[in-house]
């Protein structure tokens, strides 16, 4: 008679942490302010203010917006602040930077609120594959949060995990 196959991984206390579970759903929108610069490079305050004032905000309703400038123009901080004041109360969040910076900020907010109690003295595998955008910084922030409480940290899948950290006894 054949021996029964036992799934030792399923029976272990190993916890799989999927950062994708912390993904904040919602529309992400990019807003390039270069369109409001003279020749894409020169900020003329009067026309810039007028463009911001006339911005159709319907595309930004309850969206996560990242502001950026696609040219090498030197843009003063107040320009991004002015656009943010226009979108305040319309968009869910407005940041200056890339889409990756936006995702990092959203994950940071989620990780700040993470209750680490269930992970006390546990072996944890941080899942690596994701269908949703998970910036590399989110993995580092997760390590910062879990390392003080976890017994061990690994990356990948249970069958082929890469060891990252093991607390000394």
Strand % is 15-25%
The number of helical runs is 5
**How many domains, as an integer?**
2
Q: Which residues form runs of ≥5 with pLDDT under 50?
A: 6-11
Helicity level, as a percent range?
25-40%
Question: How many E strands?
Answer: 7
Largest sheet: 4 strands, mixed
Helix-strand category:
alpha/beta
SSE pattern:
HEEHEHEHEHEE
Strands side by side in the biggest sheet? 1-5-6-7
Ends distance = 42 Å
What does this structure look like?
Helix 2 runs parallel beside helix 3 (77-87) and helix 4 runs parallel beside helix 5 (136-146). The model is unreliable at 6-11 (pLDDT under 50). Helix content is 29%, strand content 18%. Helix 3 (77-87) links the parallel strand 3 and strand 4. By secondary structure, the chain is α/β, with parallel strands linked by helices. The protein is elongated. The protein has 2 domains: 8-23 and 115-166, no CATH class; 28-91, no CATH class. The strands form 2 sheets. It has a 4-stranded mixed beta sheet, covered by helices on one side. The chain is built from 5 helices and 7 strands; from the N terminus they run H-E-E-H-E-H-E-H-E-H-E-E.
